[in-house]
Amino acid sequence: MNPLDVLKTAALRTPEWRDGAESAMAVRHDLPMTWGIGGIPRPGTRPSAKPVLYLDIDGVLNPEAPSRPEDFAEHRIRITVRLSGEHAEWLAELGECYELVWASTWEEHANTYIGPLLGLPELPYVALTAYRYRPDDPRLPVTQLPRMRKWAPILRHADGRRFAWLDDVIPFRARRQAWPHRGIRLVPVSPAEGLRRRHVDRLLAWRG
Questions:
Q1: Which of 12, 23, 62, 151 has its Cα between 20 and 30 A from that of 143?
Q2: Counting runs of H as helices and runs of E as strands, what totals does the chain give?
Q3: pLDDT for the residue numbered 139
């Protein structure tokens, strides 16, 4: 099976995403073997009043199997989502120190369906579906493109600002690429439990 077949069978994505991934593969063959964050401005090199906090939804604010289900209310929004009033309080607390940005496959729909239930104003979001990979994006093995699909769009959106990222899928390669950069804080979350107070405390203690 050739690399493109591996990519296509690894994840069922939109045609636009597949076109972008194929373009990324096409332009990367002649690039030097570097494993940093490519030609993207290094986080922390662009001044900002607050660091950015990129928020996932499913597996973070909508956990799969929380240990205290009574703390969550179920809402039918195309699918059933579990949301917590405690999370709403924590997000308000984090919003004092961070610029909150959606980094979820919900994209702009997070502002329609999720944000109001958590008491959030309309937030910016990272455009994942429309993203087109560029020659100077972080270099990735073909087989990791589906799991790493958020990484380059988040780095581009941050554009040199300090940022933290809350997600239940933060692959090892993203962690390795982020490790040398003091302007990045990655906070992996268990998809079963979702966001917990310890994650909030870590973010409050960091703040770039």
A1: 62
A2: 7, 6
A3: 79
Whole-model pTM above 0.70?
A: yes
Strand 99-102's sheet: what is its strand order? 99-102, 52-55, 163-167, 184-188
Q: What distance in Å separates the CA atoms of residue 128 and residue 104, rounded to the nearest whole number?
A: 8
- Asked whether residue 71 carries a pLDDT value surpassing 80, the answer given is yes
Q: Rounded to whole angstroms, how far apart are CA atoms 183 and 160?
A: 9
Q: Which helix (H) or strand (E) holds 21?
A: helix 15-28
HSE, side-chain direction, 13 A CA sphere, residue 165? 26
Q: Name the strand (E) or helix (H) holding 187.
A: strand 184-188
Q: Which ranges constitute the DSSP H helices of 62-165?
A: 85-95, 109-113, 151-158
Q: How large is the greatest C-alpha to C-alpha distance in the chain, in angstroms? A: 54
- The SS3 assignment for 99 reads strand
**Calpha distance 13→19 (Å, rounded):** 10
